[in-house]
Design goal:
Helix content: 10-25%
Bound molecules: glutamine
EC number: 6.3.5.5
Shape: globular
Order of helices and strands: EEEHEEEEHEHEHHEEHEHEHEHEEEEEEH
Distance between the termini: 65 Å
Pathway: Pyrimidine metabolism; UMP biosynthesis via de novo pathway; (S)-dihydroorotate from bicarbonate: step 1/3; Amino-acid biosynthesis; L-arginine biosynthesis; carbamoyl phosphate from bicarbonate: step 1/1
Catalytic activity: L-glutamine + H2O = L-glutamate + NH4(+); hydrogencarbonate + L-glutamine + 2 ATP + H2O = carbamoyl phosphate + L-glutamate + 2 ADP + phosphate + 2 H(+)
Keywords: Amino-acid biosynthesis, Arginine biosynthesis, ATP-binding, Glutamine amidotransferase, Ligase, Nucleotide-binding, Pyrimidine biosynthesis
GO molecular function: ATP binding; carbamoyl-phosphate synthase (glutamine-hydrolyzing) activity; glutaminase activity
CATH topology of the largest domain: Rossmann fold
Structural class: alpha/beta
Radius of gyration: 22 Å
Oligomer: single chain
């Protein structure tokens, strides 16, 4: 790909400060837009997939640190975005590519970040930063550059204590991730339909799914459409009556940003779906909402799982899948044996933890044993990431088709 102009290098970039709420400060160079970015700082260990990461709505209000040392090498293409915009609040990289090099590249990553007004910082020791976050946990942080850089921040001897104090005040005034309800901010304002595609294009749908968009990634309806499913993508604010009016064979809840303990509307909506006996599949935030609807709690992980090589055990088969993750919260359900769902004295019957994260034993999937409902915390849509979990979309289609057949038999 040819690029106009001279790309900036470390010598021509101005100073940027990265300040964490615990007082940890790193001095780097401005990258992307200049200004101020505040949010929860988290790290992503994917060696590939920065476009998918940047456009994943689940990163809304988060400053993302890439542990991959070179970012931007393949530029920006028109095929990989997971939504119509970049959602990260800020971006931290070690060494930005000076020029994109890929037959698919259409633009430079840094131009894209600037166009989206995403404030970034580069020339940062992302290894030291990641080790710090692993020990201290995800926390609030800020990137300060350009006009937002306080006086005394780029002294040759290092930022002055007064400059750091000004940044720290801004960081500590930002909202904590715990307690934030963010799905409504990223959801589609209006419903839309994704028709069966690929081998199923133009054919009668195999099944109809109502997918509640809490921050849905483009790959998810695509995975269903490729299996012959018509997907009605519905806004976060959708009501049970609107879902039922679609006469869906199944309901899906997507991934999304924020703290699942705030998702009261979604939990009520899902209980209505479960009461109606409609097959359900949830991913990530959708898994946490199924957990809550069944009566379990959720809690914040110290630093979360974000990357594309996380091992997950499918306990029913003993199979280990390598999977993409992006979550900072998890479901608190008994792991040892199936438990009776605590909501309303066991109204939804027995539940098993179907999947476990092998790095830390975190709940990575739930299966209701007395209802047609299951969910996973990881990302079977595989964007970006290994395709090991894609078979779960087949499982959902099979569940819908067999459930419909059973119901036909039961009908008088
Ligand atoms: N990708 C997601 O759906 C993330 C869910 C939730 N916001 C979490 O951080 O755990």
């Amino acid at each position: 790909m040819s690029t106009a102009g001279t790309p900036p290098d470390a010598r021509t970039r101005s100073t940027a400060l990265l300040v964490l709420e615990d007082g940890y400060v790193l001095c780097g160079k401005a990258y992307g837009a200049s200004g101020r970015a505040l949010g929860e700082i988290v790290f992503n260990t994917g060696m590939t997939g920065y476009q998918e990461t940047l456009t994943d709505p689940s990163y809304h209000r988060q400053i993302v640190v890439m542990t991959a040392p070179h970012v931007g090498n393949t530029g920006v293409n028109d095929e990989d975005p997971e939504s119509s915009r970049i959602w990260v609040a800020g971006y931290v990289v070690r060494d930005p590519a000076r020029r994109a090099s890929s037959w698919r590249a259409r633009r430079e990553l840094e131009d894209e970040l600037r166009g989206a007004a995403v404030v970034g910082v580069c020339e940062i020791d992302t290894r030291a930063l990641t080790r710090h976050l692993r020990e201290r946990g995800a926390m609030r942080a800020g990137i300060f550059s350009g006009a937002a850089l306080p006086a005394g921040a780029d002294d040759p001897a290092g930022p002055s204590a007064a400059a750091v104090e000004i940044c720290l005040h801004a960081v500590r005034s930002a909202p904590l991730m715990a307690g934030q309800a963010l799905a409504a901010e990223v959801s589609t304002p209006r419903g839309y339909v994704v028709e069966p595609s690929g081998d199923f294009a133009g054919r009668e749908p195999v099944a109809v799914v109502a997918a509640v968009d809490l921050g849905i990634k483009a790959r998810t309806p695509f995975q269903l459409a490729e299996r012959g499913v018509r997907v009605h993508v519905m806004p976060q604010s959708t009501t049970l009556a609107e879902l039922l009016a679609l006469e869906p064979d199944g309901v899906f809840f997507s991934n999304g940003p924020g703290d699942p303990s705030t998702a009261g509307h979604e939990v009520d909506l899902l209980r209505g779906v479960l009461d109606a006996g409609i097959p359900f599949f949830g991913i990530c935030l959708g898994n946490q909402i199924l957990g809550r609807a069944l009566g379990y709690g959720t809690y914040k992980l110290a630093y979360g799982h974000r990357g594309v090589n996380q091992p997950v055990l499918d306990r029913a088969t003993g199979r280990v899948e390598i999977t993409a993750h992006n979550h900072g919260f998890a479901v608190d359900a008994p792991i040892e044996a199936p438990s009776v769902s605590p909501y309303d004295s066991g109204r939804y019957g027995r539940v098993e933890v179907s999947h476990l994260g092998l790095n830390d034993g975190v709940v990575e999937g739930l299966r209701a044993l007395d209802l047609p409902a299951f969910s996973v915390q990881y990302h079977p849509e595989a964007a970006a990431g290994p395709h090991d979990g894609e078979h779960l979309f087949d499982r959902f289609v099979d569940l819908m088709v067999s459930h419909r057949a059973d119901h036909r038999q039961e009908a008088p």
